[in-house]
Amino acid sequence: MMRTALALVFMTAAALTSGCASMMDPVPDDPKFAPALPEDTVADIVPDGSIFGIARPDNLYTDIKAHRVGDIISVELKESTRASKNTSNETEKSNKNSISALTLGGKPVKIGGYTTEAGMGSSSDFSGSAKASQSNSLTGNISVSVVKVLANGNLVVRGEKWVMLTNGNEYIRITGIVRSEDVNADNTVSSQKIADARIQYGGTGDFANTAEKGWLSKFFNSKWMPF
After folding, report:
1. SS3 104
2. For residue 9, is pLDDT > 50?
3. Reduced to 3 states, what is the DSSP secondary structure of residue 134?
4. Residue 225: pLDDT above 80?
5. Torsion angle defined by CA atoms of residues 14, 16, 18 and 21, in that order, rounded to the nearest 10 degrees
6. pLDDT for the residue 8
7. What is the CA radius of gyration of the chain?
8. CB of 215 within 8 A of CB of 13?
């Protein structure tokens, strides 16, 4: 009876974990990363024959850099982080105490054939060390769209890129705020100049699932494991 109940508990936990994982898996065309389309403006344009008139807004004097909602910016991903930490600790302590034998008339006093001399000593040693290091690197390109122009001229951007592979998909997602001054003349900007940047890189499918621990392994490696 107990085995059956335990099995039901594990099966329920596995089903709930799998359901939550499937609900949280990223999918393409997420509305949170959807591009913003520019609003269509209706104006009565009277052709006047000039090649630089309002009838041809894309002339030589038009700024090609993104500055309106719906414009596209190419982000150059140049992310690299590295961190390392070393700690060491070593302590040592020793104690030694002794009591000389009692003497009487210049001769040691014995009790039951044993002298009254006593001694006691103790020692303790401790040493510990820890080392941790981590490095990450991400390079590439992704095009994002301007979804909002702030009052100070900064541009709120967001976008995603999905690449379909044989056994799954890989995706890159990015959101953040870009200064219009940081956009280069070729309409590109470095990811290092995006404020409040949120960059996600991951995958879905068989390869991603194989590299991820199961829910039971996560439980035994978590802080909730009592043993």
Report:
1. strand
2. no
3. strand
4. no
5. -140
6. 47
7. 35
8. yes
User: What span, in angstroms and rounded, lies between the C-alpha atoms of 120 and 124?
Assistant: 14
Instruction: Single out the residue of 66, 69, 78 nearest to residue 179, CA to CA.
Output: 66
Q: What is the DSSP letter of 34?
A: P
| Residue in this structure with the two tokens 């499918």, named with its chain if needed | 205
Q: Which residue's structure tokens are 């951007």?
A: 157
Which has more confidence, 74 or 114? 74
Identify the residue whose tokens are 């085995």: 3
Kindly state the tokens that stand for 147.
Answer: 């979804």
| DSSP bridge partners of 108 | 103
Structure tokens at 113: 């054939």
pLDDT tens by residue, 180-198: 999 998 999 999 999 999 9
**Paired tokens of 109:** 């006093």
Q: Is 35 exposed, middle or buried (0-12, 13-18, 19+ CB in 10 A)?
A: middle
Q: Residue 115: what pLDDT?
A: 73
Task: Answer yes or no: are the C-beta atoms of 203 and 171 closer than 8 Å.
Answer: yes
Average pLDDT over residues 3-16: 48
